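Q: What would this chain look like folded?
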Amino acid sequence: MNKTCPHCGAPLPEEAAFCPVCAKSVNQRTEPTPPRRTARHLVWGCVAVVLIAAVLVGVWAWQRSSDSALTRADMAVLLAEALDYSAQDPDALLAAFSDTADLPDKQRSAIAAMIDTEIMNTTTDTTFSPNETLNRGQAAMLLWRCLGEPEPTRKELPFSDVHGEEEWYWAPVSALYKAGVFTADDAAGPNGEFLPEDPITGPVFEDWLGRHDLIQPVSSYHPPRGDQSWPGAEGESVDRFFIRPEMVELIAWKLQQDGQPEFASYDVKNLTDAQREAILDVTAETMTFTTFGGVPDKDIFDNNVPLTRAQAAVLLWWLVDCPEAPADAGRPFSDVVRGGPHSEWGDWPYDVSIAALWGEGILTLENAAVDGDAFDPAEDMLQADMDAWLAAAGIDVNG
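A: My prediction, written as structure tokens:
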């Protein structure tokens, strides 16, 4: 086969590398194609995406865990560890509760401690319901119990949804705010709400527990008046104040003791119209503090508004037949000014009443002073304090 130049077609010798006519190379060479390589930045980009995704999944899982509501078992562990509660024989205490048998030892010991100290109540005679979740109001109630139920404040709270004693969570939230455990920063809603019905999470409650050293915890809690219901349970009533219907009962009892015919036999829950009018006359003409513009306040028969401490003192003074205040009574309480302040209190004889009860030995610094030698006349009257005052006066309505 004759070899020819691929460029000009001139004949070539077999060994020729160049064409003698056109002087061009006659060797056909194919340029090698370099191997395709994946860009390094693309590889690292993929790695970064995977890592970021893993981190996001981890954060999401952690947040879901942190934001989940505490269970009753979780709460028992937190309280027992933070406040050093324990039970001598957890197995014996938990023997009756079928839903605690398979729990970890740590939870069983904590639950036994909560039952032993009565900080937490059981849900039935045979169940503790360890997996039931808690809300913020219930968590405040439990912490309040652990601290020995410090006295609430009747001053305005910074939480827009915590208003007064008709709410089961008011007393613990109010008391913890007064004690400095809660502050306005503990509002959880956009408009300053405490949100007592919202779930309580671990981080929030651990933050609350970190402040417990403001008050020394007590060794056990005993619910008032034998109330064993769970805080916030349907139908529960937290009645810790001396309220107006109870004032009505005392007035009716006194009128009966004084021999008024219409009260020879009475049922305070089913008073006749004549009995109601007689009680309204007493409050309007004798004590004056249940009137508005001189018109008797007929709501005293069926509302749950507590009396103030000043009002309770006036009532007690009337019950013991209005003794006169001794001339040398001075000022037994630093915030009770003899003769006033009428601009604030109208014509209530609360200053005279308190001085007279002091002179009779019924009110003392031990049973009537709230803080040092302060009486706090504007504060709402606690039922326990009223019981103590009545006992000091020798009044036994049921006797």
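The two ends are 142 Å apart (CA to CA).
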